[in-house]
Amino acid sequence: MSNTRVIAWSERSEPEAVYPEGINGALAEYLNSQPGIETVVASLAEPDQGVSEEALAAADVLMWFGHVRHGEVSAETVERVCRHVRERGMGYLALHSSHFALPLKALLGSSCAWRAYVEDGKPGHIRVVDPTHPIAAGVEDFTIPKEEWYGEPFEVPEPEAVILEGTYNDGVEVARDALVWTIGQGRVFYFRPGHETYPIYLMPEVRRIIENGVRWLAER
Ligand code: ZN
Asked: pTM here?
């Protein structure tokens, strides 16, 4: 079987004190330590905003982190990304604040807005609610020590599966934390946790979910 080829993309606004090489760099380093995955990093500042036609054509999965610079992503970039998902079956993985990433909004055709965004720095308790899904393989319930919560409802089309749920704000808030859709020929995965001021993408449970997600997204 050929390797799974991943582009780990970031707008690069995440704090260097937490992620010296970016969230994309941290996840690329992990994914490249796993068998059968080849990951390259890309960012908004690069030519063609890091996702040229050639780069996308060579990718099975595009992983995306954006937060405060969504508006700088050009219409041409959004068109290229969406076309590779819809027509060629490239997988798209949107991380945390990338719920507002323009390619995700275009692919899902919805506002992708949550009711609330509260950075309280309290724990989030993550529960596997679809243990049969490949994204949950080897993943047990776990706790993120400090997190930001997003409040339901989350305005997106009905997902094909909800794999994880998180409980936040001392048990008051329950959010869908891992959701998947099929858009045209491609698979789309949104992973909600990961506020960038906490080292959440260094957690082994989270890395396993991302790795599983990348492998699953590449199957189309
Ligand atoms: Zn956040």
From this structure: 0.98
